[in-house]
């Protein structure tokens, strides 16, 4: 290991392969635009293949094709709320019109008057406006009455209904598990009427995450205990408030309210009961986990303190989630636009109803598979670039003895090294994650399609495979992150870095398990704190609207957004702690504090090591009195016992969660959880126990 000494390009073939893949993605986009898909997507087209807003050429054997729609710039659907749930498209005749009806049209006379006043004919091209009220074909060739008020979608020239009930029918295409349409209508109505509160609470979660990141910088030494106390108080307070609101609403008089308000009140009462029970169970489980981990926070405090110093010296780390999110949004916007282009590209084909559809034939019809792989690989590539950037900056901080000699902007220096030397390594690491993620997504899709059709055994096997692939993906993600750290230190290729990092992690397997368990749990408490604070504020605000708003869905949206925001920010802190630990392990392995082999580590970590050594000596586990040994942070037997205890609680919690949250039989729950325990958790414990017996001799510091 030669930290920050030599720099060289790594994994160049993988960089070339990634560039070729991106060229293929560009070819798909260019092909879809060149075949006219861009015009059909942006301007829209009718059911006869005519693009709105321009002159069209005649299609062979297609009636009403080749029309001049220069003055008709908008697509109008005769029945916009008629959806094909299987193919996820509108089953309606589409026409090009001059204007969208801004007000509801209840009769054919209103449709005729709208056509005469605005010059926008809403019936079929074969029917003149003067014949709307007299022709016998008006019921087929004219829009379904009443015609809902609509407005053009910006940039896409489609007339979209503005009625909330029609939006609910659109949502039914995706939310197929809701059998009562009135419930779905009330849920969406609650979201629409509470949109200002939702936006305000989402902004509150962002502010709370930023405040927590600032607090971490300055009070990292006491952060663990502060988070623990706040989470305890927040969990108890949130649970108490939920039960209080449930009791209050249950005792409230219901004789003076309308039937519609009574239904809303019953929905809110049921939601409050579910929330209160869930909060109570969550609080009990949280207390049990914190009780088990209360003795294992010393090293976490030391690492958090050093991580706080890193953020003080590298303040731009706080803004990493913004740049990553911005890059992902740009790429996802490009990907979605290209996907829409692909959905309208191809040659015109007449369907059974005599209308025109555009379909791709031949090998090009499989381009969307390539496009989906590109979504996963490039997204993982962007996330891996963030990991490499953070790792490079933290490595520079750790292995610079005099912090006054740090680069002016270590983050930009790390980005520069990434672009100049290590893009190939990032491409290879992200490709490995893609290879694991794609089979898992395919199995999840198969499971969703076969839901309710397969037998219990097949369901158990399928879920077990999905779970094992998920565990493999998480392990590879952690190994990749440490491989990027090793690359940032030594400038070696991905395989060499992964091997070197794996050796270090195996030699410190028990420490890794303890640190990750406690550290990740502490950061999870921070996420819980932000979610609880935002959710509590949402409960108090939405409670004032309970008479006319079903706030189940708004509260879920707010809590999910708060968790995602907190995860984005605190994941950076988690990366810093993981990089610091790997640097610390390398430092203690190859340096002993003697002249020429001085430690790079911070004084806080040295104090922790010394305190741990003294505690072990006092317990009778130390060596000779005059020798100072760099012992493991906790004894091997103690760490193995900790892992066994954690896995036992993990198995119990998994069985309890599956049995309470799913409708499956108890035997199926036990089977799938035991399989996960036997093939994932138990081997980890055995390997840890084996490694504790093969631990290398201690490094003596004279």
Automatic annotation (TrEMBL):
<keyword id="KW-0812">Transmembrane</keyword>
<feature type="transmembrane region" description="Helical">
    <location>
        <begin position="297"/>
        <end position="318"/>
    </location>
</feature>
<feature type="transmembrane region" description="Helical">
    <location>
        <begin position="222"/>
        <end position="246"/>
    </location>
</feature>
<comment type="similarity">
    <text>Belongs to the CTL (choline transporter-like) family.</text>
</comment>
<feature type="transmembrane region" description="Helical">
    <location>
        <begin position="366"/>
        <end position="399"/>
    </location>
</feature>
<feature type="transmembrane region" description="Helical">
    <location>
        <begin position="521"/>
        <end position="542"/>
    </location>
</feature>
<comment type="function">
    <text>Choline transporter.</text>
</comment>
<dbReference type="GO" id="GO:0005829">
    <property type="term" value="C:cytosol"/>
</dbReference>
<feature type="transmembrane region" description="Helical">
    <location>
        <begin position="665"/>
        <end position="688"/>
    </location>
</feature>
<keyword id="KW-1133">Transmembrane helix</keyword>
<dbReference type="GO" id="GO:0034228">
    <property type="term" value="F:ethanolamine transmembrane transporter activity"/>
</dbReference>
<dbReference type="GO" id="GO:0005886">
    <property type="term" value="C:plasma membrane"/>
</dbReference>
<feature type="transmembrane region" description="Helical">
    <location>
        <begin position="325"/>
        <end position="346"/>
    </location>
</feature>
<dbReference type="GO" id="GO:0006656">
    <property type="term" value="P:phosphatidylcholine biosynthetic process"/>
</dbReference>
<dbReference type="GO" id="GO:0005654">
    <property type="term" value="C:nucleoplasm"/>
</dbReference>
<protein>
    <recommendedName>
        <fullName>Choline transporter-like protein</fullName>
    </recommendedName>
</protein>
<feature type="transmembrane region" description="Helical">
    <location>
        <begin position="12"/>
        <end position="34"/>
    </location>
</feature>
<keyword id="KW-0472">Membrane</keyword>
<dbReference type="InterPro" id="IPR007603">
    <property type="entry name" value="Choline_transptr-like"/>
</dbReference>
<dbReference type="GO" id="GO:0015220">
    <property type="term" value="F:choline transmembrane transporter activity"/>
</dbReference>
<dbReference type="Pfam" id="PF04515">
    <property type="entry name" value="Choline_transpo"/>
</dbReference>
<feature type="transmembrane region" description="Helical">
    <location>
        <begin position="272"/>
        <end position="291"/>
    </location>
</feature>
<feature type="transmembrane region" description="Helical">
    <location>
        <begin position="197"/>
        <end position="216"/>
    </location>
</feature>
<feature type="transmembrane region" description="Helical">
    <location>
        <begin position="548"/>
        <end position="570"/>
    </location>
</feature>
<dbReference type="GO" id="GO:0005741">
    <property type="term" value="C:mitochondrial outer membrane"/>
</dbReference>
């Amino acid at each position: 290991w030669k930290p920050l000494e030599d720099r060289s390009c790594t994994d160049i073939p993988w960089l070339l392969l990634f560039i070729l893949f991106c060229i293929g993605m560009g070819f798909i986009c260019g092909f879809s635009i060149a075949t006219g898909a861009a015009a059909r997507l942006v301007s829209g087209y009718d059911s006869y293949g005519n693009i709105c807003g321009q002159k069209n050429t005649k299609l062979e054997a297609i009636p009403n094709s080749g029309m001049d729609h220069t003055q008709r710039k908008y697509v109008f659907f005769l029945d916009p709320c008629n959806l094909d749930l299987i193919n996820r498209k509108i089953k309606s005749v589409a026409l090009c019109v001059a204007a969208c009806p801004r007000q509801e049209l209840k009769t054919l006379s209103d449709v005729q008057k709208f056509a005469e006043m605005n010059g926008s004919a809403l019936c079929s091209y074969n029917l003149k406006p003067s014949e709307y009220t007299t022709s016998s074909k008006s019921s087929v060739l004219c829009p379904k009455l009443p015609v809902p008020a609509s407005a053009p979608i910006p940039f896409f020239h489609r007339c979209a209904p503005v009625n909330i009930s029609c939006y609910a029918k659109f949502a039914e295409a995706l939310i197929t598990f809701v059998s009562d349409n009135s419930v779905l209508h009330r849920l969406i109505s609650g979201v629409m009427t509470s949109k200002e509160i939702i936006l305000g609470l989402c902004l509150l979660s962002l502010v709370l995450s930023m405040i927590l990141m600032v607090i971490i910088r300055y009070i990292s030494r006491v952060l663990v205990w502060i988070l623990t106390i706040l989470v305890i108080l927040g969990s108890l307070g949130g649970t108490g408030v939920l039960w209080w609101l449930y009791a209050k609403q249950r005792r409230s008089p219901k004789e003076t309210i309308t039937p519609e308000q009574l239904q809303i009140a019953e929905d809110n009462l049921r939601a409050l009961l579910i929330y209160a029970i869930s909060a109570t169970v969550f609080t009990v489980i949280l207390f049990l986990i914190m009780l088990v981990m209360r003795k294992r926070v010393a090293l976490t405090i030391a690492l958090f303190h050093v991580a706080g110093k890193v953020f003080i010296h590298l303040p731009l780390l706080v803004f990493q989630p913004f740049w990553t999110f911005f890059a992902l949004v740009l790429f996802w916007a490009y990907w979605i636009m290209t996907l829409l282009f692909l959905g309208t590209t191809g040659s015109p084909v007449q369907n059974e109803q005599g209308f025109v559809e555009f379909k791709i034939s031949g090998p090009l019809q499989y381009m969307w598979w390539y496009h989906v792989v590109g979504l996963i690989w490039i997204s993982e590539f962007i996330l891996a670039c963030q990991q490499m950037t953070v790792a490079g900056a933290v490595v520079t901080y750790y292995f610079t003895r005099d912090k006054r000699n740090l680069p002016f902007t270590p983050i930009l220096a790390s980005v520069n090294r990434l672009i100049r030397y290590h893009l190939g390594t990032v491409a290879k690491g992200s490709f490995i994650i893609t290879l694991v993620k794609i089979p898992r997504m395919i199995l999840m899709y198969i499971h969703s399609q076969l839901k309710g059709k397969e037998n219990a055994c097949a369901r158990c096997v399928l879920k077990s495979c999905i779970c094992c692939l998920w565990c493999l993906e998480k392990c590879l993600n952690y190994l990749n992150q440490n491989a990027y750290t090793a690359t940032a230190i030594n400038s070696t290729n991905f395989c060499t870095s992964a091997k070197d990092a794996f050796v270090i992690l195996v030699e410190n397997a028990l420490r890794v398990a303890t640190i990750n368990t406690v550290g990740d749990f502490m950061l999870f408490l921070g996420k819980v704190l932000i979610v609880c604070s935002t959710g509590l504020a949402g409960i108090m605000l939405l409670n004032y609207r309970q008479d006319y708003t079903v706030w189940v869905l708004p509260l879920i949206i707010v809590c999910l957004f708060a968790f995602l925001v907190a995860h984005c920010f605190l994941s950076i802190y988690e990366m810093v702690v993981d990089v610091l630990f790997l640097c610390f392990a390398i430092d203690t392995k190859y340096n002993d504090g003697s002249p020429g082999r001085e430690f790079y580590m911070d004084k806080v970590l040295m104090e922790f090591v010394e305190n741990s050594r003294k505690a072990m000596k006092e317990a009778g586990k130390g060596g000779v009195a005059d020798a100072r040994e760099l012992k493991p942070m906790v004894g091997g037997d103690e760490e193995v016992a900790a892992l066994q205890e954690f896995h036992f609680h993990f198995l119990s919690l998994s069985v309890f969660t599956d049995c309470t949250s799913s409708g499956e039989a108890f035997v199926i729950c036990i089977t799938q959880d035991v399989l996960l325990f036997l093939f994932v958790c138990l081997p980890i414990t055995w390997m840890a126990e084996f490694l504790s017996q093969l631990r290398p001799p201690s490094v003596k510091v004279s």
